[in-house]
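Input chain follows. Return structure tokens only.
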Amino acid sequence: MLNKELQNQLIKLHKECFNDGDYAEFLFEHRMPFCKAYVIEENGMALSACYARFFTLVLEGKTMTIPFLTGVATDPSHRYQGLARKVVEKAKRELANEGYPFAILHPFNHDFYRKLGFETINYKTNFMPSDTPLSGVEFKLFGIADLPLVAELYNNIVGQSSSYKIRDLDEFRLLIGNSLEHGGLGYIIYQNGIPKGYIWCEDGACQEAVVERTELLNGFPLRTDYSLTIMGGNTDYSMGTILGLQSLLQSIPYCKEASGKVDFTFKGINYQLIVENGCFLSLTKTDSRNLELNERELIAICLGQGDKVKANPFKNIIPMYNLVCYEIY
């Protein structure tokens, strides 16, 4: 629990770094009670901070709770001193000590976080709809009262994916409801009177487009080079990092009925992983040196992006998929 003085410092820091006005108060009132804060202080002053929210993910049918790092901020007068790196590493250490296998975030800059051991773990497409809608398609603005339908559409459509983030109605109220109250726009897509998906926009950009099929987005009324964010494709989106090798390999899904041994080297240590009937059996250290994998390669492989790694010794036992997770903060 943050004391009042530190909380006020963190609100001020958030405002200075993100220039988002009243959102900082909303964030600390409604989200921070459910988050953990990591702070670098000097002489009683907060110089850098980040926060962990906790997501429920389904990966290939396997449900787990994972930390999502957000709000990484450094006081403008103390930048370029490595404080962002230090506060992220502090968060990683503490989360690893609590037993979490990996963490994810939405980066402001992918290259910056690659230097901290993060790698892209899902991809998006910026879809440009055509001017002509499909027959029977209508786009209707929705309000806060319509959020139960929006949540139902998300769960019905996204839930058909093999890997996705679970959201409940309260999260929709916090995420999209607050946006609608501050100028955001939302559209439910109907075809012949039946809801088929939704689009949520904020600050002149599409935050997420969740639809049964992309053709339903054609004819979307906001034009002028307005692209829609959908999961899948080739554009980097979220990133992940390893918190603990043993816990990571114990928690991830494996290909159904896969059995076998994989020898690999990680951080100079040689390991053998044994999987039996699609389940983790053991991870042991060995004497023989094998294919060396770095942190970024291993997290990409373990979170479904093994096809992006040139030499992937796990390709027959760890499945490939694209996590559906739109969250950016």
